[in-house]
């Protein structure tokens, strides 16, 4: 890895940003994770995930998350050295006990077996429990679509969303991510929270002092508010689409927690671990091989759907902006603000 001065020179400009090659960013992040209490293997997996989010412009899940990772590790809430236990539960079912570790190493530990089952059975489920997911969700599914598979995943989080018609936070932001292959093109991928906005985006808005449009959250008294800080200080987010988003959030709780054996979003407490930020919940991943059935030409049919969507006037597909940012980052380096670069150096002990 380059020293600090050479990183700072890499693409430095007058706009308060620098650009750093992807490999160097990942190496810096890995060094931070190891310095603050993870094993080398866990650090490598988490660093790649954070770097990929930053590379693709997912600012609320990129380096913005690093202080949260560090404070959580320091609190003792998560085990940065946990070794997942993989159980071959049934021909199409894998269960993984993350052992109070991060979800990504648990996913990685079961990936080879999951692919083996998908190729053999046509569909397989990966159920992870006692895990911490603190990242963007699309990186969990996109690699399967790049191999011609269809993937769908669900994660619940901490109680910060009021169910439709409710009075207090009960659900998490409970995102859903989906990926499907296209013929001769990047996969179709979406990653959406079932809340009106991702929790990380609320935090960024609060940090920047921005007000939000109506319909995003309530204050501690349950009154509608456009102030993101009021939502964070005892308030809560609203589900997107009223009762429809609330029903989807409920579904995620059942699939990611009840089915996997993980905690519901309201099932755990950080009270004895000041500084903890990662939800200790569960994740369900479903992977399908379309070639096993009538979907042998699935990628071509996906492309036909895309053409129809464009003919209907849709100019941007799910993932288009992310792929564009990825191309820019790989060509000229990953963009970081000067403040974020300083923060990373401090966390690395430079």
Structural topology:
Blueprint: H1 4-9, E1 17-20, H2 22-35, H3 40-55, H4 66-75, E2 85-90, E3 93-102, H5 103-121, E4 123-132, H6 138-145, E5 150-155, E6 176-182, E7 185-192, H7 199-208, E8 217-218, E9 224-225, H8 228-232, E10 236-237, H9 243-258, E11 280-288, H10 298-311, H11 320-332, E12 334-337, H12 338-348
Parallel strand pairs: 3-4
Antiparallel strand pairs: 1-12, 2-3, 4-11, 5-6, 5-11, 6-7, 8-9, 8-10
Helix pairs in contact: 2-3, 2-12
Plain-language structure description:
This protein is an alpha+beta fold. The protein has 2 domains: 4-75 and 333-348, Hypothetical Oxidoreductase Yiak, Chain: A, domain 1, CATH 1.10.1530; 85-195 and 239-292, Ribosomal Protein S8, Chain: A, domain 1. It has helices at residues 4-9, 22-35, 40-55, 66-75, 103-121, 138-145, 199-208, 228-232, 243-258, 298-311, 320-332, 338-348, and strands spanning 17-20, 85-90, 93-102, 123-132, 150-155, 176-182, 185-192, 217-218, 224-225, 236-237, 280-288, 334-337. The chain has a 7-stranded mixed β-sheet with strand order 2-3-4-11-5-6-7, with helices on both faces. The protein has a 3-stranded antiparallel β-sheet with strand order 9-8-10. Strand 6 (176-182) and strand 7 (185-192) form a beta hairpin. Helix 2 packs across helix 3 and helix 2 (22-35) crosses helix 12 (338-348). The protein starts with a helix and ends with a helix. 48% of the residues are buried.
């Amino acid at each position: 890895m380059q020293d600090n001065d050479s990183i700072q020179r890499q693409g430095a400009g007058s706009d308060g940003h620098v650009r750093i090659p992807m490999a160097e960013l990942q190496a810096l992040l890995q060094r931070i994770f190891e310095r603050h209490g993870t094993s080398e293997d866990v650090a490598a997996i988490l660093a790649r995930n954070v770097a990929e989010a930053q590379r693709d412009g997912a600012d609320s899940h990129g380096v913005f998350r690093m202080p949260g990772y560090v404070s959580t590790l320091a609190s003792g809430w998560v085990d940065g050295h946990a070794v997942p236990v993989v159980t071959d539960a049934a021909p199409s079912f894998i269960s993984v006990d993350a052992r109070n570790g991060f979800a990504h190493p648990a996913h990685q530990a079961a990936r080879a077996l999951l692919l083996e089952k998908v190729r053999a059975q046509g569909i397989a489920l990966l159920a992870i429990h006692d895990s911490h997911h603190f990242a963007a969700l699309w990186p969990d599914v996109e690699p399967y679509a790049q191999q011609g598979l269809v993937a769908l995943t669900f994660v619940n989080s901490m109680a910060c969303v009021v169910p439709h018609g409710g009075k207090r936070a009960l659900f998490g932001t409970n995102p859903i991510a989906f990926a499907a292959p296209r013929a001769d093109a990047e996969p179709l991928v979406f990653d959406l929270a079932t809340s009106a906005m991702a929790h990380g985006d609320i935090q960024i808005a609060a940090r920047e002092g921005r007000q939000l449009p109506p319909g995003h959250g309530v204050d501690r008294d349950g009154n509608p508010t456009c102030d993101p800080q009021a939502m964070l200080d005892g308030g809560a987010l609203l589900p997107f689409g009223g009762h429809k988003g609330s029903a989807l959030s409920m579904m995620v709780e059942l699939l990611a927690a009840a089915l996997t054996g993980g905690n519901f979003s309201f099932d755990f407490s950080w009270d004895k671990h000041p500084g903890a930020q990662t939800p200790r919940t569960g994740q369900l991943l479903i992977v399908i091989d379309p070639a096993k059935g009538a979907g042998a030409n699935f990628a071509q049919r996906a492309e036909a759907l895309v053409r129809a969507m464009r003919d209907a006037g849709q100019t941007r597909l799910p993932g288009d902006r992310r792929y564009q940012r990825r191309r820019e980052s790989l060509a000229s380096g990953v963009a970081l603000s000067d403040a974020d670069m300083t923060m990373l150096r401090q966390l690395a002990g430079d």
